[in-house]
Structure formats: structure tokens, C-alpha cells
Design goal:
Blueprint lengths: L12 H13 L5 E4 H8 L3 H14 L4 E7 L3 E6 L4
Antiparallel strand pairs: 1-3, 2-3
Helix pairs in contact: 1-3, 2-3
Length: about 80
């Protein structure tokens, strides 16, 4: 049975890789990242990046993640959430 606590489980290895990547690459303000470049630098496939960024957009409070555009690869707009 699905319960809200199911979402509180730890992130998987791919999601942890993306969180670490973002923590190291983020600067103040708006940051734009293309899936293909994230994939190249992390060793994940572009599809893995897209799938897991979508999941992190829903449940990672460290970042505000939005799919921004698509041209040759998905571009993500990432900022630190306003407190």
C-alpha cells in the first residue's frame, strides 16, 4: 500500500549523483544545465538524467528544479528555493 512516508525514503544512487553534481556546480541565482552535459560529467545516460531530475523536481527541497526548454537536449532551470 502506498503511504506518504514512501516518498521519504532515501534517494537512489543516480539521484544522489545528481544532487552531488548540482551542489558542486550551483552558483547564486539561476542556473541552467543541459541533460546531455550532466550525463557526460556524471557517467549517467541522458535518459537517466531526465528521469531522475523529474523525480528530484518533485521531492528534493535543496533545489527548485524546472524543465526549462528542449533543443538538442532538455535544459533544466535550477535555483535554490526561497525560504
Amino acid at each position: 500500500m502506498f503511504t506518504p512516508t514512501t516518498l521519504a525514503t532515501p534517494y537512489n544512487d543516480r539521484q544522489k549523483t545528481l544532487i552531488d553534481y548540482l551542489e558542486n556546480k550551483m552558483k547564486e541565482g539561476k542556473n541552467f544545465f543541459k541533460s546531455k552535459y550532466i550525463a557526460r560529467e556524471t557517467g549517467l545516460s541522458s535518459k537517466e538524467v531526465g528521469t531522475n531530475m523529474g523525480i528530484l523536481a518533485e521531492n528534493c527541497p535543496k533545489f527548485s528544479i524546472q524543465k526549462y526548454s528542449y533543443s538538442n537536449s532538455t535544459t533544466w532551470l535550477i535555483t535554490h528555493p526561497q525560504v
